[in-house]
Amino acid sequence: MSTSELAIKPRLALFDLDHTLLPLDSDHGWGEFSIAIGWCNREEFGRQNDAFFDDYLAGRLNIPDYVRFATAAVVQRGEAAATAAHQRFMDEVIRPAMKPAALALVQQHLDAGDTVVITSATNEFVTRPIAQAFGVQHLLATELVRDGSGWFTGEIAGTPNMREGKVVRMTEWLTQRGLRWEDVEATFYSDSMNDVPLLEKVDHPVATNPDARLRALAEERGWRIVDLFSEAP
Q1: Is the pLDDT of residue 2 over 90?
Q2: What number of CA atoms fall less than 13 Å from residue 186's CA on the CB side?
Q3: Is position 16 annotated as part of the catalytic site?
Q4: Is 125 within 8 Å of 152 (Cβ atoms)?
């Protein structure tokens, strides 16, 4: 393919969210916030959350069970109360964690005319307002089934947006727009080994605030490494 043909490809900038654009885990942060406002019992919620995390580390996490657990309070409280609580969560937890370096990186791609997509394993209830706060229109998150009233049921809709699922969901997103992977020039920023399938799929993988394993892999493969939060707690 000629240089001129490459130049006309649409450019995509894909971003993981937790520990990539944010120096925290938004799913865990929402759980802690739910405890703080009295929606969840700290001892019981913490015990179950720790058990799910152990399963995750061991590679045996039951994703549907975890999502039901993580969204139970949201489902029970209903749309009005959950939306109001999430606004507080944004003000008290998320916006203070949105660092200038991350905001600037997203804006750099937007200013360049790139299509920016946040792709996160965390569910859509938690992540959609965060994507909007970053000025990002396109979000791929773990989607949730809605009931007849339009509110969440706690069940997963479609493919969970994690590990190989991120490649599946991104491929679907491209197909909906009449595009294939070879039609675009894609960059993906991520901190985690969980995202290696998508890092391997794109043209420009960027290990961003990488954990030790991903940093070693990036160095081995010659992938670009970016540390946005060197001064972050």
Answers
A1: no
A2: 22
A3: yes
A4: yes
Q: Which one of 18, 114, 191, 195 is the catalytic residue?
A: 18
| Alpha-helix residue ranges (DSSP H) falling in the chain | 3-7, 26-36, 42-57, 63-77, 79-89, 95-97, 100-111, 124-133, 164-176, 196-201, 212-221
At 50-107, the pLDDT tens digits run 888 788 767 788 889 999 999 999 999 999 999 999 999 999 999 999 999 999 999 9
Q: For residues 157 and 188, what is the distance between their CA atoms, to the nearest angstrom?
A: 24
Task: Report the C-alpha gap between 166 and 89 in whole angstroms.
Answer: 26
Structure tokens at 29: 């942060």
Residue 61, both tokens: 């996490």
Residue bearing tokens 């043209």? 203
Are 126 and 144 in contact by the 8 Å Cβ rule? The answer is no
pLDDT tens, residue by residue, 111-150: 999 999 999 999 999 999 999 999 999 999 999 999 999 9
Q: Which of 16, 27, 114, 195 is catalytic?
A: 16
The question of whether 114 is a catalytic residue gets the answer no
Rounded to a whole number, what is the distance in angstroms from the first to the last CA of the chain? 45
Give the neighbor-by-neighbor strand order of the sheet with 185-190: 138-142, 115-123, 11-15, 185-190, 204-208, 224-226
Question: pTM of the full predicted structure?
Answer: 0.92
